[in-house]
């Protein structure tokens, strides 16, 4: 049985695992990301790969899922703000230290591939995955294959513009989708509400230890589960923007399924139900076309490791 | 040499041509569309096909480019408001009358295919075509193949939302891209200007026989070519929305080239230059990624016939 | 009993009347406005005044309500696009020809004064009148006196901005209130609807002789009275913007009453009911403050003549 | 020489002073506001008044400037969220404890009156003051008199809507002016910038001790004074919204002067220059009308005490 190693390189942690051809993780390991030092990051990656490789005989290749833009040859990370990487030849660097072939992929693409092969996307060949976390990660599966675009930088849907002159985005533009539909957007919404209407946001403030800044995603989800009207309003707002965005994606891509992952997807039906409603109300040509299914991701935070490993296999 | 017939079925006319495998039209014919009667439209299509078929021995197949949503089996038009078609089994109807295999395709898809194979898209495998006319027609080429989506309804980019609560669109939504970036949007802009600032729009009104309603696309283009500042402002506004939209498409699809067709593309550099500028200023990650080329279409109004014919061949 | 003459000078007609101190019009006369020739306009005004003056012995003064900006000495029209007047010394010109003292006032101010003294504003000292017609005319009564501002140009509320980068306005800006809440805005809304959704707007098109351009205000009002859902939607949209604007005025001015005049006010409760609802939902501090009353004007198209005449008296 | 006492009651402090008829403060005193307890707040007010009264023989009256809505009889605070007052009969309560006549006024109104009589508004009878701090305080002087509106709640201009569906406001609405043009808005802008573009906002973060939350108004002003481009961009954004808002006020009120006060006005020309530019570009009818002057307030944080004291005199 051929094994591969998948590595998920994010701004805060490096997660790696040995994965078999059914998508099962046989062993895994994590390290904090030394994010301000590009050289050290490559070394940490090599370290975890060598550690895992030492435990299994038949590891054949390594798949690396990285934040940022990956070039079309799947070798170099062109730009990854959170990792301090610019034109980083990470494939070569890691190959030299681990003695295995390495393929590099955008992390959301790896996540999408993991869900497509072994998670919520099984049996569907046209998938758009969006991971709602700090921002929006996006991966697209077309005809059963990962879509990378002409230059390797496709599927950055978090940065299409949804509001002219809207909220400032880290990419330098204003009004990007991820500023309105993401885990951070939910927290932004809840803190705003707590700041201007403390009375209305009483339960949120209580869970947040009294200050707007103390409120983060899990608090909003918990309050919403308890039926708190302020938290539910925050969810409705984010779901509205999410559903609208999925309808926009459907106008362009007409996929068979959308998969919602990322930290925000832990909210489950609390998120899914209003997203489906908003999508159905916003889809162009509704009533005259089949509609994509909208599902919650199944692999959780492991999807990136599993997907990266599997991409190294093919 | 194998020949095929391409038919372009629009709201006002049916155009058909015999096309060879180099994309050359050997002979063509046009008829007005009997658009309120679905049955008659099929008969007109069959009539022009039979007429052309009678003149060439080796016609092997027919490609039909039609406005509206085409189902995934490329047989039935699900919904085409301008043709009065709902669930119209047009493949079967035409095949019965012409005795040749027929494939049906969305008209903008056929246009995109024509340009990709024989026009401005030659040599590029990842293309987004937008045809700026009454609305926005859109076709997408991925890996050298026409992209149709899971249900056959992909590439309706004219209906992704660019302005929340924006201008009303014929699709029933508000704020769709085609309400801001299309030939009609240009005319809308010019008439608005003439209505509220007749002094400023003097040349436009002159060309439009004195009334705002008299101004149409060719008048705006002519005035802009003369250097009229009001007309140039209208072009800049439409180019801004077009370039922004292409940047949004690039965020999602990362194509190698955009091709701009449709009636508005007759304006050439008058449109192309400000679109390129707007695109370059709006692209997410600009400076850290290769940029798609933006080109004017080359086949003009024949692209749909040529593309449909070629799609029948493969 | 002292009489005065009121003259209402608009872009299309000059209306004049002899008015007594109870606001009764004893006799009136109308002439078309020779709007492209400033000199002739003054002559037409003098002609109608002299005509009326000849019939009544004790006419003491003339009040002139004019479109445009009137200077602080109430003598000169600084700017009136529809009358081709720039720095027109109309007080002096008319006085020379009629031998009576003349005061000049903005037409909406005159209308507001008429309603305040003899119409819907009786008994209220803090009033904002808005006249919904081609645009929004506005007049403000504070402490029982007409408010003119420091330079005579106050109460142009139709040109505060309600939508950033919104609809183009004749004043040269974008997003002015009158582009969203006026008789013209209602017609704009109805034509737009008819253009993009002819099926939905069937009754409007029928009344408009088949084309969107054939639909004007009275048609929309008639269809709405019949219960036509498309026309009612147009009214709701305009009422929403009107009520929001009144709430904005209330935040700044806190009047005791709003009076809605202009051609659109003929719709009566069809307009008034949804305006009141929108106002109540948009008012800042609602629930903690007394609310202004919202009323339909009572004097109709005579308010300008009556108000101008009365302003000449004081 | 008659003296009066002015008291400025804010959410965090109670400031009081003995003021003569030339607006000079002879002696002053401050106390923290016991803001959660309405009863105690009245007692603290009485305490500082009695303290000052004991030092001067001829104090004749007390003027109280309070946050919130003050009723038309100038006796009761209807609603002041930051003071926990609802229908608080503060005039009567304080009069009972100090034995002097008391008049109550909205704090921004008192500030406007102070500036009008003794500060930047001397010699001008039509003034709009806006105090840019936590929100926007507003006071209006018409014909040399303080404007209070029909019900005493006029001049709450911070709550007219500038962006449909815009930023949430503490008043319960969305898109209020003060969410875009105020000291808090400046800080909001700077923190947002630091959050999404830390590299660009390096100097701001440095001054803010490394975290976006550490940045407050004085840091942004300091960085802007040093020429930091990120801070200057934040100022330009706020100045744009401020100038637009003043243009909107001018459309409605046509004042002779605008006075900008509040904490943000400490930035002086850094704020004033771009506000003037934005105003001049946004004013309706620009070029055909005299323009209001825009000035920085002169009395600083004393304006409220001075104004309240003077209002007690008349």
From TrEMBL, chains A, B, C, D:
Q: Name one GO molecular function term.
A: glucokinase activity
Q: Which NCBIfam families match?
A: ROK_glcA_fam
What GO cellular component entries does it have?
A: cytoplasm
Keyword terms: ATP-binding, Kinase, Nucleotide-binding, Transferase
Checking PANTHER family in the record gives: GLUCOKINASE (PTHR18964:SF173), ROK (REPRESSOR, ORF, KINASE) FAMILY (PTHR18964)
Protein name per its UniProtKB record: Glucokinase
Organism this protein belongs to: Actinomadura barringtoniae
EC number of this enzyme: 2.7.1.2
Q: Does the keyword Kinase apply?
A: yes
Question: Can you cite a GO biological process for this protein?
Answer: glycolytic process
Keyword Manganese belongs to the record: no
Entry similarity comment: Belongs to the ROK (NagC/XylR) family.
Write down the SUPFAM superfamilies for this protein, in alphabetical order: Actin-like ATPase domain
